[in-house]
């Protein structure tokens, strides 16, 4: 391979954030980092404990200068606490409190934990305005349904993370909050005019750019007024025209995971990679599915596109320059001690809301109504069990639940029903309604968005299902 060929391959590899299985770095990742690979994205399956993560990131750094990223939003979407649940409430809870200094403190604490583990880019916060209550993928990940609220808390989150030299990645541009389709599964559409788009979807991104956000993540969402039928991740009109041009952003643009069906089932993984770089992205998050063979195929496809004139070499060089500037901002790998404080629980306590009056618990039976996790959240534990050791916990699938049997089990006992986003699941609402009709003294704990609640029964809204949210709810229940 000639020197020019090696240089071109290095530029192509420099756009990729790869993933791998396991808690140690495979030899191919270390080898590719030596040859210019952009970096890695870590997932829950890469995490055992903070010491192990630090060892992993140290090994990665020994091979190159990687961008080391993961999704640590607090709340439902966590990677460091994937196996136990986050100690921090998510954005919906922070939006419900609406104290920007609290949001800044929570994100600074999250950032300090990431920095102590050697992670330098957090794929957070979500700046989506959750204007669609039935949104299947954003929900509690959003600060709320109002653009001004979302904008001011997005700024606070960016400032909190970046105060400890962890880059924020504000997502999902140009906005995923008004959708009813999960882009992991298909291409959602935000079909609004430019006036609405500017006033609603773009307001938090404009504010985040003004606050110096180091990176912005694209959405696999079509916005017909800007992108036609094309997802924003692949659209020059969205990334170069709107984000770079109208909003004046010159930081790093990171794609959402390219292994999502919105990309793979339309233009394919390698085709999507080439199109996204051409559109204006700088780092391609590949997601957890692509193998090393896929990675090599993507690098080859980018190289071929440059040689064939379909992708300007200058676009790759521009991306490399932006990523190099980000690496310089990271600094010299300074170790920042994690802030061991209780800000997460404090925030969850301020967010939790009680409607009605919860009665003292007597031999409590807790029925947790199972809700399928979204792909973004994954299989993170949730529920109140850890905080109610004296209770009997029964986890049921709503379609298969036997309400009369559950009620018989609860005779002469306190009944607590825990749900998650009941407004989005008809069978969950039916089960809760049946239980509450028979037992008006039931306490319902909603660990998603509190959009629906039964007419009777005490009702606790947590605005999220993180570990901190559950503890705050139980404290309120047992006060």
From TrEMBL:
<dbReference type="InterPro" id="IPR050226">
    <property type="entry name" value="NagZ_Beta-hexosaminidase"/>
</dbReference>
<dbReference type="InterPro" id="IPR001764">
    <property type="entry name" value="Glyco_hydro_3_N"/>
</dbReference>
<keyword id="KW-0378">Hydrolase</keyword>
<dbReference type="GO" id="GO:0016798">
    <property type="term" value="F:hydrolase activity, acting on glycosyl bonds"/>
</dbReference>
<dbReference type="InterPro" id="IPR036962">
    <property type="entry name" value="Glyco_hydro_3_N_sf"/>
</dbReference>
<keyword id="KW-0326">Glycosidase</keyword>
<feature type="domain" description="Glycoside hydrolase family 3 N-terminal">
    <location>
        <begin position="34"/>
        <end position="325"/>
    </location>
</feature>
<dbReference type="InterPro" id="IPR019800">
    <property type="entry name" value="Glyco_hydro_3_AS"/>
</dbReference>
<comment type="similarity">
    <text>Belongs to the glycosyl hydrolase 3 family.</text>
</comment>
<dbReference type="Pfam" id="PF00933">
    <property type="entry name" value="Glyco_hydro_3"/>
</dbReference>
<dbReference type="InterPro" id="IPR017853">
    <property type="entry name" value="GH"/>
</dbReference>
<protein>
    <submittedName>
        <fullName>Glycoside hydrolase family 3 protein</fullName>
        <ecNumber>3.2.1.-</ecNumber>
    </submittedName>
</protein>
């Amino acid at each position: 391979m000639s020197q020019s060929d090696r240089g071109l391959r290095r530029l192509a590899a420099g756009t990729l954030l790869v993933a791998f299985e396991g808690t140690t770095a495979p030899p191919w990742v270390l080898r590719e980092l030596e040859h210019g690979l952009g970096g890695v994205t870590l997932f829950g399956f890469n995490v055992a404990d903070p010491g192990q993560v630090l060892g992993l990131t140290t090994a990665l750094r020994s091979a190159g200068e990687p961008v080391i990223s993961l999704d640590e939003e607090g709340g439902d979407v966590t990677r460091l606490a994937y196996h136990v649940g986050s100690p921090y409430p998510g954005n919906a809870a922070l939006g419900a409190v609406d104290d920007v200094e609290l949001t800044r403190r929570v994100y600074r604490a999250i950032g300090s934990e990431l920095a102590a583990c050697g992670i330098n880019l957090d794929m957070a916060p979500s700046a989506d305005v959750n204007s669609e209550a039935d949104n299947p993928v954003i929900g509690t990940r959003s600060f709320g349904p109002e653009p001004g609220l979302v904008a001011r808390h997005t700024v606070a989150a960016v400032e909190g993370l970046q105060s400890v030299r962890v880059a924020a990645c504000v997502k999902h541009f140009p906005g995923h909050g008004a959708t009813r389709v999960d882009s992991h599964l298909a291409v959602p559409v935000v079909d609004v005019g430019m006036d609405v788009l500017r006033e609603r979807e773009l307001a938090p991104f404009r504010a985040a750019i003004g606050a110096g956000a180091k990176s912005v993540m694209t959405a696999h969402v079509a916005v017909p007024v800007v992108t036609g039928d094309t997802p924003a991740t692949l659209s020059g009109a969205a990334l170069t025209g709107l984000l770079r041009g109208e909003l004046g952003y010159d930081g790093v643009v990171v794609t959402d995971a390219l292994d999502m069906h919105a990309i793979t089932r339309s233009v394919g993984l390698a085709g999507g990679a080439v199109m996204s770089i051409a559109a204006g992205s700088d780092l391609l998050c590949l997601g957890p599915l692509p193998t090393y063979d896929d990675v090599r195929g993507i690098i080859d496809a980018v190289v071929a596109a440059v040689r064939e004139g379909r992708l300007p070499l200058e676009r790759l060089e521009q991306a490399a320059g932006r990523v190099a500037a980000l690496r310089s901002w990271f600094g010299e790998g300074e170790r920042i001690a994690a802030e061991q404080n209780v800000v997460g629980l404090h925030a969850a306590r301020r967010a939790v809301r009680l409607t009605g009056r919860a009665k003292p618990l007597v031999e409590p039976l807790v029925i947790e109504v199972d809700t399928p996790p979204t792909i973004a959240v994954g299989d993170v534990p949730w529920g109140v069990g850890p905080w109610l050791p004296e209770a009997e916990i029964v986890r049921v699938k709503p379609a298969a639940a036997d309400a009369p049997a559950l009620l018989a089990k609860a005779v002469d006992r306190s009944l607590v029903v825990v749900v998650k986003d009941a407004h989005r699941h008809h069978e969950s609402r039916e089960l809760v309604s049946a239980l509450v009709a028979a037992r008006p003294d039931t306490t319902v704990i909603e660990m998603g968005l509190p959009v629906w609640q039964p007419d009777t029964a005490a009702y606790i809204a947590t605005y999220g299902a993180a570990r901190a949210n559950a503890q705050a709810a139980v404290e309120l229940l047992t006060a």
